[in-house]
Every structure is written in C-alpha cells, then in structure tokens.
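Notebook entry, structure prediction.
Reason for the run: the old model in the group folder had no record of what sequence produced it. Starting over properly, with the input documented here first.
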Amino acid sequence: MSTSRPAPRTRSGVGPGRTGPAVRRGVVAALLASVVAASLSTAAAVPTRPATVATSAATWVLPVAGAHVLRAFDAPPAPWAAGHRGVDLTATTGGPVASPADGVVAFAGPVAGRRVLTIRHAAGLTTSLEPVRADVTVGTHVRAGTPVGTVEGGPHCGGTPCVHWGVRTAPDSYLDPMLLIDPGGPVVLLPVG
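New structure, fully documented this time:
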C-alpha cells in the first residue's frame, strides 16, 4: 500500500512548479511593463530620437513570412526551470528568415550543434533565431523584414522544418514573441466569469 500523497494544489488548481494561464499573463504583463519603462527611459536619454515604445506592433514582423506556431511560448516558473522560451514557427528548409524588428546582429554561429542568429533591438530586447544559416555578419544593422538568413534542417521540431524564435528582455527573462506581432485589430476586454 502506497503512503505517498498527491502534490498540494494552489488556489488556482495548479500544482507546484507549474504556472497557470493567469500567472503566465501576469508575468508577461510585468515583463512588457518593464520593457515599456526601459524604452521610455532610453528614449528620454537620447533627445534626438522620438519617445516611442520599441515594442509597438508596427515595428515587429514574423521572421518567417506566413508562418504558423507549431509550439507556443511556455514561460518557466523560474530562470533555471523547464519551459519553452520562444515559439516554433512553421518553415521550409532553405527558406528565407527575416529580422523581426530593426536591430544589430549580435551573434551568428553554432551553439550546441545548431546555427543561431541573434539580433539586439531597442529597449533591451534580443531576438534569437535557430536553426538559421546567417547571411549577415556581426555588427550589421538590419531593418524589420530584411532577409538575414535561411532555415536549416534539424531535429528541433521532431524533423518538421521550423524556426525557433525567442525574445529576451534580460539574460534570464523571456517574453512571448507573438505578443509583439499585431493581432490584426483592437484589443477587446471581456468580463471575467
């Protein structure tokens, strides 16, 4: 006879080490608030640039045109915990990959056997794209939608060609990249319950 007990549940019904949708939304809202605050303070420090929020939907595009999400973002409950720190987008091996926003190429090369392309954007955001063979070099300034490389095949999506797109706000903090893409209309708040 087993004497083990089931894991305790929180008020939301989610067990320890996992986050529910409400917690994830709260984390994303907090990250976006910090990004907005950082971009406003950066814009204030550089008087020649207009005070705009770098995360406005008009400045971000999908790195793979017409792609669909194969695997969604799943924020880890702690920086060291398991999660999916980006989205996997449908792609075609050899197909073009574009910069999702204006920025500067920070890294282009292999990491753990996969080619990775990293681009630094305004407001402290950094994009990572993999597996991508870069057509640009470190230090290159790129614009949103500019081709920066091609999709390489690999095992990341179980043999299905894909591009993993991650966006960091700090070395260990990630946000859902799809929140940066214009959803195609106004946000409508619905009553809870």
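Summary: Residues 7-24, 27-58 have pLDDT under 50 and may be disordered.
The old model has been moved to the deprecated folder.
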